[in-house]
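Per reviewer request, we include the raw input and output of the structure prediction for the construct analysed in the revised manuscript.
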Amino acid sequence: MTARTILHCDMNAFFASVEQQANPELRDKPIAVVGGSERTVITTSSYEARAKGVKTGMAIWEGKRVCPELIIVVGDNRKYTYTSSKINEIFRDFTPEVEAFSIDESWLDVTHSLSIFGSAVTIAHLIKARIKHSFGITCSIGIAPNKLLAKLASDMQKPDGLTIIPPENVAKVLERMPIKELCGIGRKMVRHLNMMSIYTCGELGRCDEARLTRKFGVIGSRLKLMGQGIDDSPVIPFGQEDQVKSVGHSRTLDRDIDEPAEIRRFLLQLSEMVGSRARKYNVSGKTIHLYVRYADFFSSWGRQMTLKNYINQSDDIYKAALSILATFVLEQPVRLLGVTLSNLKHQAEQLPLFEDERKKLFATQAMDMINDRFGSMAVTFGSLVKDKESAGSHVIPPSWQPDGIKNIDVK
């Protein structure tokens, strides 16, 4: 395979950094960004707060305990998604091969850009300077022969780092590198590998492949390659991804609810958000999945229903979600609800045969057009009117993308 040069750009404490630049009074101070509800956890914190022990996932009271002077900032998701989209535009000035991994991380394949800009290091410095000049924030960049190693490199020097792993140094870098540092090896996998006396990437790369496949199946071969720093996966620009297999929304509620009418209202809101996105990208689905998390945070359940026909109308999604809910007795008040449409097919909208269905389609199309122009839920179901201000996602999902069907309208 042709030698590649891959950059991984990771914005430093992204949400907190954006907030500090937007409000000069927050600069150089320990801040924590949280969601919109009182019960929310810390989504990210500034480096000043991290130095005091504040970590992502902490409850607010835990953050205040380790850092009494911690400033709590309610996140502004529109600000973050706008900034992320503009940063990805900067990346595309250097190469068309840009893959957004999350709202604050992207891979760039600059192999074919080196003849224009001279070197990957030059490109990295130009990107860092552009982002700093445009937004006043920093990023850490890793340069390596593939995506796996580029991401590893970007994590090695933070904040505002620039780390290079040249091909000839891969084995040396990985020899004592803990396996948990590799993207794709989570805590559960780490525990299983540790039980096999595998703690470093070097040990993983030398492990007998048959032993790994006996334990982990087909991914055993992939694990061995990861331990050796081998990754042939391409950088996939927007528009060239595999077709999306599901469209979903979930929401952590501002307070625990157990009233059936309230639960139904939130399910309708989620169904409208899912249906709107599905219709926008001309997809329909046959399977509805309902997910519920209880007030104790740890207990949850999920069930799904597969229909005879493909649907993308909000009320059809809602009716299916209600049917699933009716099969289960809620044991506690509800903390989180999620609705997902899957088993998708991509096709243009067809005009229904019957007049009532045509009227319903035309009304939905009109509502979608108004909401596209004036903002999500500018027009909505009457029962949701009083919830319009709180409608939408409080937390940006990991799957968010700056373009396409994964570009979720957040609040």
